[in-house]
Amino acid sequence: DWTMGAYREEAIRKIRDQVGDRKVICGLSGGVDSSVAAVLIHEAIGDQLTCVFVDHGLLRLNEAEEVVGMFRDNYNIPLIHADESDLFLGELEGIADPEQKRKTIGRLFIDVFQKHANDIDGAEFLAQGTLYPDVIESVSFSGGPSVTIKSHHNVGGLPEKMGLKLVEPLRELFKDEVRALGRELGLPDSFIGRHPFPGPGLAIRCPGEITRDKLDILRKADAVYIDQIRKHGLYDEIWQAFVAILPVRTVGVMGDYRTYDYACALRAVTSVDGMTADYYPFSHEFLGETATRIINEVQGINRVTYDVTSKPPGTIEWE
Ligand code: XMP
After folding, report:
1. Which among 150, 197, 205, 307 is the best mutation to test ligand 1's pocket, defined by most ligand atoms within 8 Å of the CB?
2. Is 253 helix (H, G, I), strand (E, B) or coil?
3. How remote is the CA of residue 2 from the centroid of ligand 1, in Å?
4. Helix 284-297 and helix 212-231: axis angle, to 10°?
5. What are the phi and psi torsion angles at 259 (to 5°)?
6. Tens digits of residue pLDDT in 217-229
7. Measured in angstroms, how far is the CA atom of residue 319 from the centroid of ligand 1?
8. In the structure, what pLDDT confidence band is assigned to residue 140 with cuts at 50, 70 and 90?
9. CA–CA dist 214, 234 (Å, integer)
10. ipTM of model
11. What is the pTM of this model?
C-alpha cells in the first residue's frame, strides 16, 4: 500500500528528528499497537530502543513465549522480559472490586516498569502505541459530561514520574491503519490480525477474586473457544472474542457423577473502534459444539453461557 509506505517514511523521519542519538524505552504488551510502535521505532533508531515486556501473570495461554520469541528471534530488538507474575498475583489476592483490581495492576505496572527502565542507562524517551481513538476517548465521551466508566490501564502518569518525554508515532492512526502499517513493516499477518487484549489482561475476565486455579481454567477454556472460532473461519469477522470465568459454581452431571464446577461466559462482538459493539450472532450449532468441547476438554467448567449484550448498555469486557 503506497500511502502506508509514505506514512512509514514520514514517521521514521519524525522519530529520528525527535530522538536524535538518545535512548528510548518502550513498554511492550504483546498487543498490535505497542508491537507496531516498537518495530517502527526500531527501524528508525535501531539499538537506541529497548523494549520492556512486563508479564503480570494475567496473559493468555503461551502468550508470553510467543511475544518474546517474536521480538527476540525475528526482530532482534533488545528486550527485557520481566516475569513479575508472583508480585501481581500476590497483591491481587482477595481483591474482588473491579476498580480496585485495575488500580492495583496499574500501580504495580508503573513500579515494575520503572524498576526495569532504571537499568537502561540514560533513557530520555518513553514510546507508547497510543492511537487516535485513545486520544479522543480520554478527552470526552460522546460530547457529554466526562464520566469514568473504567480506569483504563495505560502508563498515564509514568512519563512525568520518570522525567521522560513521550514518543507516540501512532497518535494519528485508527486501528485499521495501524494494522496496515504493521503489514507494511512486515509483521506476520497472524499477529496483525489479533484481537485487542486489555492491559489488565485476564484479571477483568475473572469477575470477583482472582486465583491461580481460576486463571488456569480460564486460559484453557479461552484457548478452546478461540480454536473453535478459527476452525470455523470466523476469527477475522469478530472484533474481539474471549471467555470470562464466572464467580459461581453450578451442579452438573458427567457420566454417572455429579459435578460442581465453574460456569463460564463466552463473549464475541463486532465493532469498528471498541466504542460501541454488537454481540456476534453465532449459529446455535457453533455454540452447542463449543460448549461441548469446553466442558469435555477443560476440567473445572461444567456450564457454558453466551453473552448477548451489546455495547452500550454492556461494556465489552466484564469488568
Ligand atoms: P470496554 O470493556 O470498556 O472495552 O467496552 C473497550 C475496549 O478497550 C479494551 N480495554 C482496555 N484496553 N486497557 C487497555 O489497553 C484497559 O484497561 C482496557 N479496558 C478495556 C477492551 O478489551 C475493548 O477492546
Report:
1. 150
2. strand
3. 31
4. 140
5. -115, 155
6. 999 999 999 999 9
7. 9
8. very low
9. 27
10. 0.99
11. 0.90
| 3-class SS of residue 186 | coil
Q: Does the annotation flag 34 for ligand binding? A: yes
Domains of the chain from N-terminus onward: 2-192 (3.40.50.620), 211-306 (3.30.300.10)
On the 0-12 / 13-18 / 19+ scale of CB atoms within 10 A, 124 is middle
196 lines ligand 1 (CB under 6 A): yes
Q: Is 33 annotated as a binding residue?
A: yes
C-alpha cell at 50: 529497548
Q: Which of 105, 62, 70 is nearest to 205 (CA)?
A: 105
Q: How far is the CA of 150 from the centre of ligand 1 (A)?
A: 9
Give 56 Cα–ligand 1 centroid separation in angstroms. 17
Half-sphere exposure of 33 (CA within 13 A, CB side): 24
> 240 CB under 6 A from ligand 1?
yes
Q: Residue 116 has what pLDDT?
A: 87
**Distances in whole angstroms, Cα of residue 257 to Cα of each of 221, 248, 251, 252:** 21, 19, 10, 8
Q: CA-to-CA distance for 179 and 33, rounded, in angstroms?
A: 8
- Residue 85 assigned to a binding site: no
Cell digits for 139?
478527552
Find the Cα–Cα–Cα–Cα dihedral 21, 25, 29, 33, rounded to 10°.
-30
Q: Tell me the C-alpha distance between 94 and 84, whole Å.
A: 18
Our answer on whether the CB atom of 138 is closer than 6 Å to any ligand 1 atom is no
Pocket test for ligand 1, best of 28, 138, 152, 278 (most atoms within 8 A of CB): 152
